[in-house]
Each structure stands twice: as C-alpha cells, then as structure tokens.
TrEMBL record:
Keyword Signal attributed: yes
Name of protein: CRISPR system Cascade subunit CasA
Keyword Signal set for record: yes
Coiled coil (UniProt feature): none
Keywords (A to Z) from UniProt: Signal
Taxonomic lineage: Bacteria, Pseudomonadati, Pseudomonadota, Alphaproteobacteria, Sphingomonadales
SUPFAM superfamilies per UniProt: Outer membrane efflux proteins (OEP)
GO molecular function: efflux transmembrane transporter activity
Source organism superkingdom: Bacteria
Family note: Belongs to the outer membrane factor (OMF) (TC 1.B.17) family.
Pfam families per the UniProt record, alphabetical: OEP
Length: 456
C-alpha cells in the first residue's frame, strides 16, 4: 500500500513539473491607442522590406513608389498582421491535432469492517482511448486544410489591402492633377462674372447673363472645394489602410501614372484560366470542399465502435490483481446515418460554392477587361475630338481678342471650355487607372510597375 501511494505521489509530482505555464498578458487599451496614434513611417525599414520582396528592383528610401507602398502595408497594416496571427493559430492547432489521445485515471478506496479481510482495498484504473483509423485521419486532414484556408485568407487580406491602397492612391493623384485646373477655372469664372457685371452696369448686357456667370462661378468654386475634400478623403483612406496616422503619411510616387499603356491589357483564355485557378478565393472554396470531405470521412468512420483500453489494478492486502477491460463507444441508434447525410449535404454545398467562385472570377475578369477597353476608347475620343477642339477654340478667341475682333467675355468663356476639356481628359485618365486596377483585382496579379519585379 505504501509503495502504491509513493508511486502515485511521484507520478503526480512528475505531471505537475511538466506542465506549461503562461503569464497573463493584460491589455493596456490606453497604451495601444497612444501607440497607434503616434505610429511613424520608417523609410529605411520600408526600403529594406521592399528590397527583400524584389531584390532586383530599384528602391529609394526618399522616393517611395508602389513597391514601397506594398512593403509598408506588410509592415504596418493591422489587418494583415491579424491575418498572419490567424495563420499561426491554425498551424498551432494543426500540431495540437496530432497529440496522443487524452487518457483518464481513477483511484478508488474501499473500507470493509470484515475482520477476516484487509480493511482497506485500493484500486487504480485507467481509460486509454485508441486514436486510429478514419476518425484520426479525418481530424488530421481537417486541421491541415484549416492551415491552407488560413493561408488563402492571408493572401486575400494582403491583396484586398493592396487594392484599397491602390484605389486611394489613384483617387489622390487624380484629385491632385485636377486641383490646378480647377483653381484656374475658379479664377476665369470670377473674371467672367466681373466682366458681365460691368457690362450690366454699363447697360450693355442682360441680367440673365450675369446670373448665368454667377452660377458658373459658384459651380467652379464648389468643384474646387469638392476636389480638396477628395484629396483629404484619399489621404485619410490611404493612411487608414496603412494603419498610420495622416501626419505620418508620405507621398508615394507613380512615375508613369499619366501615361498608361495605350492598348488595354486584355487577358487571353490561358491567362484568365491561370488567374482563376490561382485566385485565393477560389482556392479557399476548394479547401472548404476538402474540409467537408474530411468531415464526411470522419462521420463514416464513426459508424464503427471506438475502442478504449481499460487496464486497472486492485490491492486488498494480499496479492495484487490486474484486471483488464475493453470499452466500446457505439454509434447512435441509426448507425450515424443522419449525421452522414448532413455531411453529404455540406459536401454538395461546398462543391456548389466552388462553381460559384469560378463563375464570379470569370465574370469579374470579363467585366474588368471590357471596362479597360471602354476607358481607353473614351480617352481616345476626348484626346482626338473634344480636347483639341476646345484648345483650338481658346487659341482663336485669344487671337481675336488681341486683334479686337471679339469681346473679352467670349475669350474667357473659350478658356473655361478648354479647362473643362482638360478636366474631362484627366477624368478619362482616372477611369483608365481605375479600370486597370479592377482588372488587376480580377486577375489577382499586378500588370505593370515595380511590383512586377517581386520574387515569387
């Protein structure tokens, strides 16, 4: 009896000595908010991250470009960091799924007042579930697929944040290109208003002309104010995507922004096929199907009894007895058929989700390619028709004004028309850049720029 107690005590001490310990990590919300509000952009750190992604690319810390923007996202974006942590969790859980089954032990003591026997009787029993076969294989497969899903989720988050930053950068650059044109437009509309007002006071004009000029001047001022708000909004969205305060935001360059490729980068069938089979959202739907398949295999395996070894030993003062038992965990009374049918239905639903993801991807590619072509066609119409005609009319009006053949108001109106044409041309450029960004989003790959040099 003493030997049994000693062995049990030593075993308990051994178990306690091998336990892991994790200190508590309380959340200091005030400190976290302060740290987020005071975050800074480190040019050297971003440049080093950009060089690690694209060793052959030209990276200048003092002239960040779109590659630097992606590197900054990987460093500072909290949503990407959260997705990375989720992947770590999935990997840890996959390792945990491979642990040996959890045993259980029971120690019982029995007292008897029979003088012919030992008053105390002690028994030690164990329950050792056997981890094998289809149930174990399904659990391991599900854990491995969960890691794949977490990887696909991380890729989708990175791409979504990249596209959000790209969209904000496009809006910011277009608004900045519009800003000097709108400033000139406000000045010209103010001159037209002054001229029409002077004509009205001289009795040479009509009140409706002055009212029209006043409306046009107010519209020009409102367009300038809206453009300033668009610049502030784009900067705010870019800073939010990066996870930095606006005070830490730097200007990211885009060398060929005003000169996109003349021909729309329309993907052929092979490129579209390759893009669809490599899209993280499509691959995630396939992984979800694999998970449903693993669930089905596990439910099929649960049709059969699960075996548990139950060794024990009993001591009553005399010889020690060692009985041995075998436990069987039986399936439900319907032999698990209802659960299997549910697993079959989930697998069919997961298969349908794959077809939906593929259809959505192909449709998105076709739509984006069509918009890319339409945007370039619209720009070509402006470049070949509206813009040169407006510029020529403004030049002729200026020449006629110099020769005294036309009034100053008509010349200023022609200049305002030329600025409107330039603004339309700038908007057409913005449409092309947004259409190309949508096509990149559909293909899940960059089509131009320094990101093409990223080492895969």
């Amino acid at each position: 009896m003493k030997l049994l107690k000693l062995s049990m005590g030593l075993g308990a001490c051994g178990l306690l000595a091998g336990c892991m310990h994790a200190p508590p990590v309380p959340v200091d919300l005030n400190a976290q908010v302060s740290a987020a509000a005071s975050s800074t952009y480190d040019p050297a750190q971003v440049a080093a991250a950009a060089r690690a992604m694209a060793p052959t690319a030209k990276v200048a810390p003092d002239a960040p470009d779109r590659l630097s923007l992606l590197a900054a996202l990987m460093l500072y974006d909290p949503r990407i960091a959260q997705a990375q942590k989720a992947l770590t969790v999935a990997m840890r859980e996959a390792a945990s799924a491979r642990k040996v089954g959890q045993p259980s032990f029971a120690l019982t003591g029995q007292y008897s007042n029979d003088p012919t026997t030992e008053p105390w009787q002690a028994s030690l029993g164990a329950s050792l579930p056997l981890d094998y076969g289809g149930v174990k294989g399904a659990r391991l497969r599900r854990a491995d697929v969960a890691v794949l899903i977490a990887r696909h989720d991380l890729a989708e988050v990175i791409w979504a944040e990249r596209m959000a930053a790209r969209g904000a950068l496009i809006d910011l650059m277009v608004a900045r290109m519009r800003s000097p044109l709108l400033t000139q437009q406000v000045a010209i509309r103010a001159q037209i208003l002054d001229a029409t007002d002077a004509r009205l006071r001289a009795g040479e004009g009509a009140a409706i002309e002055r009212d029209s000029a006043r409306i046009a001047a107010r519209q020009a001022q409102r367009a300038l104010d809206d453009n300033r708000a668009a610049i502030a909004d784009a900067r705010a969205r870019l800073a939010t995507t990066l996870g930095l305060p606006q005070s830490a935001l730097v200007d990211f360059g885009w060398a060929d922004f005003a000169d996109p490729v003349a021909v729309a980068p329309v993907p052929d069938a092979a490129l579209a096929h390759g893009a669809v089979v490599a899209r993280a959202d499509v691959l995630r739907s396939v992984s979800a199907y694999d998970q449903s398949e693993a669930d089905l295999r596990g439910e099929l395996a649960r049709q059969y009894p699960q075996v548990t070894l139950q060794p024990s030993m009993t001591w009553a003062g005399g010889p020690m007895t060692v009985p041995f038992g075998l436990g069987l965990s039986m399936p439900s009374w319907d032999a698990n058929r209802a659960t299997i049918r549910a697993a079959l239905a989930r697998r069919e639903a997961a298969g349908a989700a794959i077809h939906t993801a593929i259809a959505n991807a192909l449709g998105t590619i076709d739509t984006a390619a069509q918009e890319s072509r339409a945007a370039r066609l619209a720009q070509a119409h402006v470049q070949s028709g509206e813009w040169p005609a407006a510029m020529a009319a403004a030049r002729r009006a200026q020449q006629r004004l110099a020769m005294g053949e036309t009034a100053r108001i008509e010349a200023l109106t022609m200049q305002a028309g030329a600025l409107d044409a330039q603004l339309t041309l700038t908007d057409a450029l913005g449409r092309i850049q947004r259409a190309d960004a949508a096509l990149e989003d559909a293909l899940r790959r960059p089509l131009s720029g320094p990101e093409m040099e990223i080492k895969r």
